[in-house]
Amino acid sequence: MWQVIKSVLAAFFGVQKERQRRRDFEQGRPGHFILVGLVAAAVLVLLVVLLARLAAS
Amino acid sequence: MASKLPKSPLEHSAGGAGAAAESPGAPPRGLLRWLLTTNHKEIGTLYLVFSLSMFFIGGIFALVVRLELFQPGLQFVEPEFFNQMTTLHGLIMVFAAVMPAFTGLANWMIPLQIGAPDMALPRLNNFSFWLLPVAFTLLLATLLMPGGGPNFGWTFYAPLSTTYAPPSTTFFILGMHLAGISSILGAINIIATILNLRAPGMRMMDMPLFVWTWLITAFLLIAVMPVLAGVITMMLLDINFGTSFFNAAGGGDPVLFQHLFWFFGHPEVYIMILPAFGIVSAIIPTFARKPLFGYASMVYATASIAILSFLVWAHHMFVVGLPLVAELFFMYTTMLIAVPTGVKVFNWITTLFQGSISFETPMLFALAFVVLFTIGGFSGLMLAIAPADFQYHDTYFVVAHFHYVLVPGAIFSIMAAVYYWLPKWTGHYPSERLGRWHFWLSVIGVNLTFFPMHFSGLAGMPRRIPDYALQFADFNLVSSLGAFLFGFSQLLFVVVIVKCVRGGEKAPAKAWEGAQDLEWSVPSPAPLHTFETPPHVTPQPHP
Amino acid sequence: MPRRLAWLSGAGGFALSPQVLANGWNMPVGVTDLSREIHSLHMTIFWICVVIGVVVFGVMFYSLFRYRRSRQPQAANFHEHTTVEVIWTTLPLLILVAMAVPATATLKNMYDTGDAELDVMVTGQQWRWRYDYLGEEVAFTSSLSTPRAQVRGEEARGETYLLDVDNPLVLPVGRKVRFLFTSDDVIHSWWVPELAVKQDTVPGFVNENWVRINEPGIYRGQCAELCGIDHGFMPIVVQAMAPDEFDAWLAERRDEAAQEALGVDRDWGHEELMTRGEEVYAAICASCHQPEGQGAPPTFPALAGNPRLQEDLGWQLDTVINGVSGTAMPAFRNTLNPVELAAVITYTRNAWGNATGDVVQPARVAERLAR
């Protein structure tokens, strides 16, 4: 699970080691990555909302 | 990029052109053949021809606009007709020229690039194409109706497009519905094809980037075209059935329209540029004779842009009266988009570095794409700064910005793709000499047209005005001259294509020596049926 | 910068008139503290883009030149480099954060509309602006005053072509003025570049913005949101004057308004109503119904020779006062005063061959308005 989160975060940043990527593709299940990806997108939105609220106050 | 070419090009193209035409169940001849075809190559050709003709119709509308703006004062058309021209120019170019061109390229190339015999849903494919001529005949017919065609801008903001709209608006809505259905069906087909029909051995991360970008684009289309359908249905109800979605007098909200429109509209912008990224990512490695620098990071960047495209829509609405928190949120997310976009540009440039670069016409268009799209990206970054956008919004600066990303962006990439794949489609190389003329005249024309618009916008010229104050006269004069140069040089494009279809230097299966993908393993011209037995792709280990 | 660019364009062979240079190629610095801040944000982000552009395009054109096929027959074969990728993702992020900080501060400042000394309601109407000095009993509409003959090229165009209005918005220098924006019909956008104020006027909603002008002068702008046929013909003129001059001007306008109110009760003659009506018609009605009343069917019906108009005064009063919902005809009950309404109705019933001979008195209109 931690591996999946790490890989999704790396994907959000856009950079990933080739070795990690190959391992993900060989061992990971796509469903996990999609789920964690959606959660991460939601977290990103919440973070920016929080940041905007903080900046506006 | 990552798949190795199969040993013999002819191995899996059972038959070849002649045999295909004679095979049992041969297609009907003449007009009926085109009407009934379910072949991905023929439907691809239909899309591309349709798109090219609409490109000229939308272009003529643009030239009417530029003619009127050549000088201050009203000389050629009345404001009412001027507004119809700006509106239809935008609608036709977006929905009838750029989008169908990419769908046409997808139809032709995706099955060839993944080793599939055809699209997954061939009859649906035929239907989704033939919806388009119907949709745009309806749309263009509004010009002949009493009260004229749509005159409220391609963004058709309510209530100008509802309470205050001409009677033909209902036809406009119907036309847009049909175009939207066509896009959704096309997207479903593309997703089904990519996910199910890849040649054995081809994993997702072995797909060419054009396939990747189209896969992501197709998901965007499915996500946002229904939103467009919803918003135009609400307009239909407001106009004809007495509802008040967008009518403040009845308790509705005109700003709701803009939120819905741009929730569709911003991903739509990426629908028009992601496939372009895929094309350029195929052409640059071919002519630099060097693999793309960061294949995986290109895929990630495309996905990031797609996700972010759903989070930035209100940056089109910074002056509509949003609360401060919303302004900040959309400013931050919009600025974030610059990061994956920058990654793409850096990747292309690093691919060029230490390559062995030649400058055939497709490469020229792809390189111009990188430079001029980046300029459009810079002005986009400036527009993202919300306080400054209060000055930029709805001026010619915005017009300059989105034309830089759409004309030398999307359209140059389409032209690059046509020059790149014409040898595969026709079996002949396009004329290099005419191609160069077409390229240089287009580049000069595009910049003469759109660069001065940055200045006129900053100096204070609003968009969509048929006449302007005297201080904008010189910029507009240059823009108009550039527009006519650009417009007329597109006739050369037609000449090149027609000549290439009729003859020219014969192209081998692998028409460009640096090309890597699977489409170059079938003969040129590609026979009607290819990959009837799937090729086996040896996955190339990522180094 | 303008001079350098002018030289460049001269070298390019374009004969540019001096007017372009006088009016600039760039965003105006403007005459408020906020407009200066916005201008400096604009210039900062512009120069950041220029620097990035020089570096990126520099590397690109160097590669194109250095690694052209004739010089480099064999391509290197490298790809993917984690450190490089981390750098080119992180660096832009840092630049963006550096840009976001001042942009956020300026935006917060723009949204701070509190402590205003004067409130002005700006109402967009197809195709003119209405200004209400809230609590001051002064209100007027402001429409394009550039003659149509100049648009048609029948007359030489003046220096402020398309940027002249009959009644400019007058504002005091040095006082914080809050604007409240709304619209009577479609969305418009009120924009004066020198004041760095652009705000949409949305029917049914009220938006806010504010300005504190530093220098007296005349500042011109235009409607920035497509609002129909005459979107290009609804300019804005702001006249900023010293506070004491402004107070005197405001008092004078208040007296005029009071005078006009008295005029409702007296009997007006045919000629004076026709003269006044012609002015009102030209400023308000002519953009749709056309200068000769010929209209532009089917959207804008003709008034000249219109049988219903000539036969049915009650219907015409109702149409002008309340508008026709679902069409482009707005309600003028709040836009025009009884004298103006009476004058323009009298005018349309007796101009361009319409010969009803009717004289509609302001009192009659006032009575109708009171219903």
Automatic annotation (TrEMBL), chain A:
> Could you tell me which Pfam families the record lists for this protein?
DUF2970
Top-level taxon: Bacteria
InterPro entries in UniProt: DUF2970
Q: Where are the transmembrane segments?
A: 33-56
Q: Give UniProt keywords alphabetically.
A: Membrane, Transmembrane, Transmembrane helix
The protein's name is DUF2970 domain-containing protein
Organism, per UniProt? Bisbaumannia pacifica
Automatic annotation (TrEMBL), chain B:
Q: What class of enzyme is it?
A: translocase
Entries under PROSITE patterns matching the protein: COX1, COX1_CUB
- Write the Enzyme Commission number(s) for this entry: 7.1.1.9
Q: Name one GO molecular function term.
A: heme binding
Region: Disordered, residue numbers: 1-25
- Which pathway is this protein assigned to? Energy metabolism; oxidative phosphorylation
One cellular component (GO) term of this entry: plasma membrane
- Transport found in the keyword field: yes
List the InterPro entries: Cyt_c_oxase-like_su1_dom, Cyt_c_oxase-like_su1_sf, Cyt_C_Oxase_1, Cyt_c_Oxase_su1_BS, Cyt_c_oxase_su1_dom, Cyt_c_oxidase_su1_bac
Lineage, top-rank taxon, reads Bacteria
**SUPFAM superfamilies to which the protein is assigned, alphabetical:** Cytochrome c oxidase subunit I-like
The main place the protein resides is membrane
Which GO biological-process labels does this protein carry?
A: electron transport coupled proton transport; oxidative phosphorylation; respiratory electron transport chain
PANTHER family hit by this protein:
CYTOCHROME C OXIDASE SUBUNIT 1
The family annotation for this protein states:
Belongs to the heme-copper respiratory oxidase family.
Q: What does this protein do?
A: Cytochrome c oxidase is the component of the respiratory chain that catalyzes the reduction of oxygen to water. Subunits 1-3 form the functional core of the enzyme complex. CO I is the catalytic subunit of the enzyme. Electrons originating in cytochrome c are transferred via the copper A center of subunit 2 and heme A of subunit 1 to the bimetallic center formed by heme A3 and copper B.
Q: What is this protein called?
A: Cytochrome c oxidase subunit 1
UniProtKB/TrEMBL annotation, chain C:
Q: Which EC number(s) are documented for this chain? A: 7.1.1.9
PROSITE patterns to which the protein is assigned, alphabetical: COX2, COX2_CUA, COX2_TM, CYTC
Q: Which Gene3D superfamilies match?
A: 1.10.287.90, Cupredoxins - blue copper proteins (2.60.40.420), Cytochrome c-like domain (1.10.760.10)
Primary location? membrane
What cofactor does this chain's UniProt record say it requires? Cu cation
Q: Where is the Cytochrome oxidase subunit II copper A binding domain?
A: 115-252
Cytochrome c domain spans which residues? 272-352
Q: Which GO terms describe its biological process?
A: ATP synthesis coupled electron transport
Catalyzed reactions per annotation: 4 Fe(II)-[cytochrome c] + O2 + 8 H(+)(in) = 4 Fe(III)-[cytochrome c] + 2 H2O + 4 H(+)(out)
Per the entry, the cofactor note is: Binds a copper A center.
User: How does the record classify its membrane topology?
Assistant: Multi-pass membrane protein
The yes or no answer to whether the keyword NAD is present is no
Q: Which InterPro entries match?
A: CcO_II, CcO_II-like_C, Copper_CuA, Cupredoxin, Cyt_c-like_dom, Cyt_c-like_dom_sf, Cyt_c_oxidase_su2, Cyt_c_oxidase_su2_TM_dom
Extract the GO molecular function terms from the UniProt entry.
copper ion binding; cytochrome-c oxidase activity; heme binding; oxidoreductase activity
Q: Which domain of life is it from?
A: Bacteria
Location of the Cytochrome oxidase subunit II transmembrane region profile domain: 19-114
Which residue ranges does UniProt annotate as crossing the membrane?
38-65, 86-105
Class in the EC hierarchy, top level: translocase
The UniProt keyword set, sorted, is: Copper, Electron transport, Heme, Iron, Membrane, Metal-binding, Respiratory chain, Translocase, Transmembrane, Transmembrane helix, Transport
Task: List where in the cell it is found.
Answer: Cell membrane; Membrane
Q: Name one GO cellular component term.
A: plasma membrane
> Briefly, what is this protein's role?
Subunits I and II form the functional core of the enzyme complex. Electrons originating in cytochrome c are transferred via heme a and Cu(A) to the binuclear center formed by heme a3 and Cu(B).
Q: Which family does it belong to?
A: Belongs to the cytochrome c oxidase subunit 2 family.
Protein name, UniProt field:
Cytochrome c oxidase subunit 2
Annotated source species: Bisbaumannia pacifica
